[in-house]
Amino acid sequence: MTAPSHTARAHSFNEAAAQYAANRPSYPPALFDAVEDLAGRPLTGSRVVDVGAGTGIATALLHARGADVLAVEPGDGMAAQFRRSHPDIPIVRGNGNTLPLADDSADFLTYAQAWHWTDPNRAIPEAVRVLRPDGALALWWNTEALDVPWIADAARRIESHLGLNIAEEKLNVNAHVADPADRLDFTRREVRWSRRVTVDAHLANLGSHSAFLVQGEESSAAFLAEERDHLMRAFPDGMFEEVYDVILLLART
Question: Which structural domain, as residue segments, surrounds residue 88?
Answer without folding.
Answer: 6-144+165-194+241-252
